[in-house]
Structures
1.
Amino acid sequence: MRFLIFFLFSSTMVLFVWDFHGVLEIGNEKFIGETVNQVLQENGFKTRISVENMRLWYGIKLYEYFERLVPDENKNRHISLQALCREKMTEDALQSSIRATPFAHDVLSMIAKNSSDQILISNTSDSILDRYLRIVTMKPYFTHIFPTNIPGQERTKTQVLCEYLQHNPPKKVVIIGDAPSDMELSQVNCTIPTRTYHYVHPGWEHRECSSDYKINDLREILQELGNI
């Protein structure tokens, strides 16, 4: 899979900015929670991540779970624990744990057919994100894919989106994510009208944050196509 930093394109009417984990896939939160706890146990730590904290923190970078769970360890140790988790994230293991969110393919396909650009920004590494996208078969929908947790090239979602908008300014931005920090991306460029959708899976509680819409069904995003 080829990951691009940015390319210069002509201005698009509407840019859809997607988060991946917790939005376009379902099941990974359970897999990550179990994997983090397994690594903690295998390395002699007594602390464990609870289901409640997994849902509360879900979407942060993998090493950041260890920053919160074993804060007395240094950054290098957190990174090494992250690496141990990644060793367990084989394609076979992920294949049996995750699936596409209901209606995700329908929504992504309809937006793509409308000739609107879609980019994906995810707090994971390039190789792991590639693995996830192969499993849920979503790569073709995106004009650009940005993993932010690449060793030696780590960036924030804000930095990625800011740079992208500087070179590819659309008429409007639509942001879809499950984390409060995703909703804060609406402040990246205040000169471009932005709409935010805070999505969580049915049965999950929306986290406290400011957004234009709080949804449990990705099809609600399709109303944006009527405004183009």
2.
Amino acid sequence: MHPKNIEDSTVYKAAGAVGASVLYLVSTRLMRVDYKLAKIDARWNLLDWRGDALVRERRRQHLLSSKNAVYDMIVLHVKLFGLVTLLFLVSLWQGCVAAVARVLMGICLFTADFFLDQYFPPDPGALLDANALQTSLDAGVLVSYSLSLCATLAVAAESEEVLKSAWWLAAPLVALPACAVSYSFRAEDGALRRALRGGVHQYRTLGRQHREEALLDAAAP
């Protein structure tokens, strides 16, 4: 690599690292006060947060009001990891390391969507479930990241002809059923979620009946 290109790359990475640090600090401080600037005690020392009015319990203000601070922190760290990946890992092994990192990011977000509620539960009769919608969108993102990883591996293996095939051109359409299935699983009144709950309830009922029958058989003379 030309010395000037190396110098430019170093400056770019350093500026990116500083920008990522500032973004992380600002985002963390805003999360602590539930994104209300009036609760921030601005001082000359920007790292002095002692006067900020922390929000212990969040209240719903609109449809997309953030409910869970833990979810917000997970998303922030995932995005920070993505920025670090973009800065330092893109050039490793023809971008394969960065592609794998993106897939891991997608898995983290998708998993967080299923176990944590980013938004408040929908009102009865609501047309959309915000948490389910976020889960479906992240499912589509995970599919796109996975396809990107496959394409990067194909280029690294010098198999670019695979990317010109008809099936590969149609591969992004897989995101559509992935989004639909994820939404149905995550939505409070989703068909797949109701079926899963019914199956679990039936399994527990049968298990309880078998245990009762076993106890009766054991007690019988």
3.
Amino acid sequence: MAEKSMIGVVFVLFITLIVGVVLVSTIMDSVKLNTNTLQTLNRSVDISSVRIADNNVNPGVTFVLAGGAGQVLTSVDAVRFDNGTILVEDTDWFTNSTDNLGFLNSTLMVAHPDNDTDVDYTLEPQEYVSSSIARTLLNLIGLFFVIGLLLFAVGKLKDFGLFGME
């Protein structure tokens, strides 16, 4: 009889832990999507459409950096030509109120006819949780779920008498 109940306990623990691991991984994936920003490095932007006569630049032409609906551009970290020349914010490039990247008619932009630029920027996804306290609490959900699973497993094993306590 004790062997049957031991098999039952092992079966319940096995199923609970398998389901728990699947659930915790799903929960943590969802939490990660809502608490992390998206950083893009070295995105190539061809600015040939910005160039006008004599290598000047038309500041009215801008480029959309956000990858999808609801994403918000939080920062443009670096803009540079492919040859490594770094462009300066508000002198060579700008971001407008709709979070688009534009280029200015500066001396550096006119002097370098290179049309290939690399841009580093950060986006917030549509579901991003902006409150740092809420992000911290969301990150703790997985930890508490795992602690609950462990307490359940230890409780089942203790009920069966595996720890020598009854």
